[in-house]
């Protein structure tokens, strides 16, 4: 089996290079690839790549993920997150290939306190979420066999993420202010990549498993409690940090270009039921990532 992976060097793309390797011949590209076009800012070039390589599976880990910047670059965000996934999906439909794609908790408005299921009403609050939602719709409209995994708050040992930002800021400042009224589940790129491989393997045998799934780690937290956990773990493992005051603030007191959902809880019941997979608690993966990053 031939698998084409796009966005190979992002947090998730890097882990997918590992997790997908045993499933078949893996061709992993990033936007700078020269033999085959793989820049999602150039949608017109992508169909030729799929036709030339003829993969049985296309995995798209590339995305425009700068949430605040997307507010001032909506066209580029839309091209990368919606138009190009649509082109890949069309090419997959024509080739009879599967498409594995990723989406986000930010497709929802975050009202209420309940965990959302896959068919809950979407209503993105920001450009990034809107373009990711449009990407989902383009994939469904193409008629290709697909898996769309909606995840949240992704971190990895390799790449940039909130946990690493908190470690850096805690080394530089005595006081941090962190939002405590946005609730969600930090999800490791390693876990998501492993889920992806297991789900793909089953879906290839059971095409009726195609569809959209919420794929996040177990448990829930706020950005503030997540930050505190990361900083306390670092201290407990001998790292000296400046920050003594990790202040909890409401979203209204922390100005950002993009508005973010308050309730990012996603129910993984469907994933667990259809694929029989277990979602470990978020702290297990975060602690493992910290041990790797901080060398303890
Ligand atoms: N990060 C998060 O918190 C969350 C992410 N997701 C989704 O999960 C998926 C993976 O995200 P994650 O790995 O964390 O994101 P990263 O930002 O770590 O990686 C995104 C990758 O996409 C690449 N990329 C950006 N623009 C283009 C382009 N024009 N052409 C080709 N590649 C491009 C980047 O390349 P380069 O390095 O060259 O810029 C980077 O390698 C995405 O679909 C994202 O929307 C969902 C929920 C949360
Ligand atoms: C740096 C910083 C952020 N925050 C807040 C802002 C924001 O609400 C939250 C997280 O900050 P980030 O910049 O990591 O947030 P953000 O980039 O919006 O994270 C999101 O990325 C996209 C790609 C997704 O799909 C989402 O699931 C989610 O992970 O913490 C603070 O409260 N204090 C701080 O010092
Ligand atoms: Mg971010």
UniProtKB/TrEMBL annotation:
Assigned GO CC terms: cytosol
Q: What's the cofactor?
A: Mg(2+)
Ribosomal protein listed as a keyword: no
* Any matching Pfam family: RmlD_sub_bind
Q: Which GO terms describe its molecular function?
A: dTDP-4-dehydrorhamnose reductase activity
Give the metabolic or biological pathway: Carbohydrate biosynthesis; dTDP-L-rhamnose biosynthesis
User: Which residue windows are transmembrane per the record?
Assistant: none
Q: Which top EC class is named for this enzyme in its record?
A: oxidoreductase
Gene3D superfamilies the record matches: NAD(P)-binding Rossmann-like Domain (3.40.50.720), UDP-galactose 4-epimerase, domain 1 (3.90.25.10)
Q: Keywords in alphabetical order, please.
A: NADP, Oxidoreductase
What this chain does, per the record?
A: Catalyzes the reduction of dTDP-6-deoxy-L-lyxo-4-hexulose to yield dTDP-L-rhamnose.
Q: Which PANTHER family match?
A: DTDP-4-DEHYDRORHAMNOSE REDUCTASE, METHIONINE ADENOSYLTRANSFERASE 2 SUBUNIT BETA
Question: Which family is this sequence assigned to?
Answer: Belongs to the dTDP-4-dehydrorhamnose reductase family.
Q: What is this protein called?
A: dTDP-4-dehydrorhamnose reductase
């Amino acid at each position: 089996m031939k698998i084409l992976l796009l966005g190979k060097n992002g947090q998730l793309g890097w882990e997918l290079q590992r997790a997908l390797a045993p499933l078949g011949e893996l061709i992993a590209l990033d936007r700078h690839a020269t033999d085959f076009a793989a820049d999602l800012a150039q949608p017109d070039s992508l169909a030729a790549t799929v036709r030339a390589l003829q993969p049985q599976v296309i995995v798209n880990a590339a995305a425009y993920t700068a949430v605040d910047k997307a507010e001032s670059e909506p066209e580029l965000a839309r091209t990368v997150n919606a138009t190009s996934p649509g082109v890949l999906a069309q090419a997959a439909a024509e080739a009879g290939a599967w498409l594995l794609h990723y989406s986000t908790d930010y497709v929802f408005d975050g009202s209420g306190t309940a965990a959302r299921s896959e068919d809950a009403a979407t209503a993105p609050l920001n450009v990034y979420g809107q373009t990711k939602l449009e990407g989902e719709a383009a994939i469904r409209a193409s008629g290709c066999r697909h898996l769309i995994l909606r995840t949240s708050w992704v971190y990895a040992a390799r790449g940039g993420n909130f946990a690493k930002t908190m470690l850096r800021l805690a080394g530089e400042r005595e006081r941090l202010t962190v939002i405590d009224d946005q609730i969600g589940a930090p999800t490791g790129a390693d876990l998501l990549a492993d889920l992806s491989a297991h789900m793909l393997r089953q879906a290839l045998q059971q095409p009726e498993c195609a569809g959209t799934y919420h794929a996040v780690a177990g448990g829930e937290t706020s950005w503030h409690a997540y930050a505190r956990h990361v900083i306390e773990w670092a201290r407990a493992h001998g790292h000296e940090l400046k920050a003594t005051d990790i202040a909890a603030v409401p979203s209204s007191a922390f100005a950002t270009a993009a508005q973010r959902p308050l309730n990012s809880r996603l129910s993984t019941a469907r994933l667990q039921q259809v694929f029989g997979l277990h979602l470990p608690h978020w702290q297990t993966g975060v602690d493992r990532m910290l041990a790797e990053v901080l060398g303890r």
